[in-house]
Amino acid sequence: MHHHKTTPDSPIGIFDSGVGGLTVVRAIQAILPAERIIYFGDTARVPYGSKSQVTIRKYAQDDTAILMRYHPKMIIVACNTVSALALDIVRKTSGSIPVIGVLEAGAELAVSMSKGKRIGVIGTQATVCSNAYACAINELDPDIEVHSKACPLFVPLAEEGFTDHPAARLIAEEYLREFDGRHIDTLVLGCTHYPILRGMIEKTIDPGIRIIDSAEAVARRAKELLKDSGMLNESTATATPHLLVSDLPQKFIMLYRLFMGAEMPDVELIDV
Ligand code: DGL
């Protein structure tokens, strides 16, 4: 493997199965506007969360290899499913650069926020079945009770931009009923697609429940890590992200506009 020296001006590589990771891009831009971002959305193979561990691990390796072509100074796994099941593969494929996953960051923030020590987690089938959130949370605090619920239909709803559709609300009510009577005080959006549906989720759950966005959590962690290692980009210019997708760039442009409230800089179609 060629070792390229990374500098503060090197980009941050971010990937997800589709548009969900844009919630991480948005969170990074909010607190680190000068950072150059290279984003890959594997739109040809979304969703990941309903696939097997073997398949998810293979995809994670491909996605990391694609980002490595751009010599990033850090990789952010903007997909909870990959964070839960394949973070080791991402680390192996990326060599010596730091890798951070949304799941650890989300778990850490949830633990620091939950006073009543009862946390709800929603995520994909694969994330919930892996039990990775409960493990990460209980490693930090074994006294916390974790209740999880897989919400597989939330990913296609987000991918279709159904952010406040009555059908989406019905599905949310059906899934989130799981938490009735569980007395959770914190709910982790354990899939990066879910912040797109946040308004609807908020309307469906008890208003006293605090929502944790794993995308915001990982952005904060990225900032700390870059600062501590002297790798913050000191430029005063605002960088525009470079976006790569494996299918349907036009649809991605439409969704980008919807979620980011901005025109899409440029999008490149690549093979996986
Ligand atoms: N956005 C991803 C996650 O955070 C995966 C969604 C999917 O592809 O199923 O888990």
Short description:
By secondary structure, this protein is α/β, with parallel strands linked by helices. It contains 12 helices and 10 strands. Strands 4-3-1-2-9-10 form a 6-stranded parallel β-sheet, with helices on both faces.
Give the cofactors and ligands: D-glutamic acid
Helix content: 40-55%
| Distance between the first and last residues' Cα | 20 Å
The profile of the biggest β sheet is: 6 strands, parallel
- Which structural class matches the secondary elements? alpha/beta
Which regions have little confidence, pLDDT < 50, spanning 5+ residues? none
Mean pLDDT: 95
Radius of gyration: 18 Å
The string of secondary-structure elements, in order, is EHEHEHHEHEHHEHHEHEHEHE
Strand percentage lies at 15-25%
**DSSP, total strands:** 10
Please tell me what the overall shape is: globular
Strand arrangement in the largest pleated sheet:
4-3-1-2-9-10
Number of helical regions = 12
